[in-house]
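Format notes (please read before filing issues)

Several people have asked whether sequences and structure tokens are stored in separate files. They are not. Every record keeps both together, in the order shown below: the sequence lines, then the token lines. Line labels are part of the format and must not be stripped during preprocessing.
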Amino acid sequence: MSSSHDQDFSSAIFLSLGSNVGNRGEQLQSALNVLAEESVNVVTCSSVYRTDPLYVLDQPDFLNMVCEVQTDLSAHTLLESCLRVERRLGRTRRVDKGPREIDVDILFFGQSIIDDQTLVVPHPLLYERNFVLVPLAEIAPHFRDPRTGLSVLELKNRSQDESDVKRVGRLSHC
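Then the structure lines:
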């Protein structure tokens, strides 16, 4: 049986933001500002975390955070908005999982499970990424993953990712 706290998050939408090129903190703040222009209302933000790169190790450290957002957009339209934010802030796709000015990913879209050619939600790699799980657990530890039924806190505690994730502060306008 789920608690009322779990139900509070049942329709929540969570986005992950990351940057490791340029002024990383400014990029995160700019992404939040542009999301607002895309009809995406930020409800709450995690702290900002300095994180080791994964997959492609020869690149600068990232700043990462997670936000809960509200929107009337569909999941696919939200994805289009996230991609527009990335383009507008100068993201250049150089190397897969390589350096980026900004990255905006949909982690969860309520309890929806989407798996098609353009979008997979819950994000398929979130389970192996502490740079997502740590900030997500900060703001929504009891949110239940619709694929596994586990809470975010349980997912974080089961993660085998040993990369360094350190809280460095908060954005001033979040």
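For reference, the curators noted about this record: The longest helix spans residues 24-37. The two ends are 33 Å apart (CA to CA).
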